[in-house]
Design a protein that fits this description.
By secondary structure, the chain is α/β, with parallel strands linked by helices. The chain folds into two domains: 12-150, Rossmann fold (3-Layer(aba) Sandwich); 155-296, Rossmann fold. Helix content is 43%, strand content 20%. It contains eight helices and ten strands. Strands 3-2-1-4-5-10-9-6-7-8 form a ten-stranded mixed sheet, sandwiched between helices. The protein is elongated and about 70 Å long.
Length: 302
């Protein structure tokens, strides 16, 4: 990796490629950096990316000139992004990082020391849109820190709150903490959502559980206990505890239609576990109608 600088540990990292999607990601990241008083690392990958195979057999000098042009364009892109941050969020300290690696590798290398990594969901043109989509999926699946995927959302979504997936295990604790912290910084309401499968009522479909429904004392207690510590730590957050029947991924996607941010945990303990559990996070990233944060299990809780 060839850097202008190495990001300060604890920075918010945002991946940029010049597309409208990455522009929205920059807007999200700079606002978060401002409210959390953190440095913002602007990252661009000046690589041939998905088109790399097309250069097979082309003389090295020609490829070299193309790479030089990409580096020059990348520096201009980073400078323009830094100017935008200075104009819109003048208190944010900016660092520029120019890489010649594949964008997935570049962001994954930086994600471990970052407070969060922010990416868009689409790139420039059909091929690059597919590439950036693969970047967001790859980074959200493999990063060791939280990854925010900023989607193309309806204007009304900006007025929604935070929804966090509470699965009742220790794996969701980092996601719950991040959700409450983000809701507090952004002055947003929060919905703590616990989805459970009820074989007795499976024919009734997926729906909210009435507050006075009997026989669900254990499930309600599980949800309340899962967020008790965060309610004490962030008393300013207006939260709402919700139980729903059905499949977690479907209910989270449904909830995304009335939210500005969905926070979901992910754990990776082998191929079988990835298939059974990480698929929930991947499905939400692909189909949510608002921005999504994927938080790896095992992260230390601040």
């Amino acid at each position: 990796m060839s850097d202008h600088s190495t990001p300060t540990p604890g920075s918010i990292v945002v991946g940029l490629d010049g597309s409208p999607s990455s522009g929205r990601a920059l807007g999200w990241a700079m606002r978060q950096a401002a409210v959390e008083h953190r440095p913002l690392a602007l990252v661009h990958s000046a690589s041939l990316g998905a088109a790399g195979d097309a250069w097979a057999g082309v003389p090295g000098a020609e490829v070299g000139r193309v790479l030089e042009d990409l580096v020059i364009a990348g520096r201009e892109l980073l400078a323009g992004a830094a100017e935008r941050v200075s104009r819109e969020e003048p208190t944010v300290v900016v660092q520029e990082v120019l890489s010649t690696e594949d964008p997935r590798d570049a962001l994954l290398h930086l994600a471990g020391a970052a407070t969060m990594t922010v990416v868009g969901s689409r790139g420039r043109g059909p091929v690059l849109s597919l590439l950036l989509g693969s970047v967001s999926l790859a980074v959200s699946k493999h990063a060791t820190g939280p990854v925010v995927v900023v989607r193309e959302t309806e204007p009304a979504a900006a007025h929604g709150g935070v929804v966090v997936d509470v699965d009742g295990t220790a794996d969701s604790v980092p996601a719950i903490e991040l959700a409450y912290r983000t809701a507090a910084f952004r002055s947003l309401p929060l919905t703590a959502l616990h989805v459970f499968w009820d074989a007795v009522h499976q024919d009734s479909g997926e729906h909210d559980v009435a507050g006075d429904e009997e026989g669900l004392g254990d499930v309600r207690a599980l949800l309340a206990e899962s967020v008790a510590g965060m309610r004490e730590q962030f008393p300013q957050v207006q939260d709402h505890l919700v139980l729903e029947r059905g499949f977690r991924d479907r209910q989270l996607i449904r909830a995304s239609g009335r939210a500005s941010l969905v926070v979901v945990g992910a754990r990776h303990r082998g191929l079988v576990d990835d298939f059974l559990h990480a698929s929930v996070a991947a499905t939400v990233v692909e189909h949510a109608r608002c921005d999504v944060v994927v938080v790896p299990a095992g992260m230390p809780v601040s």
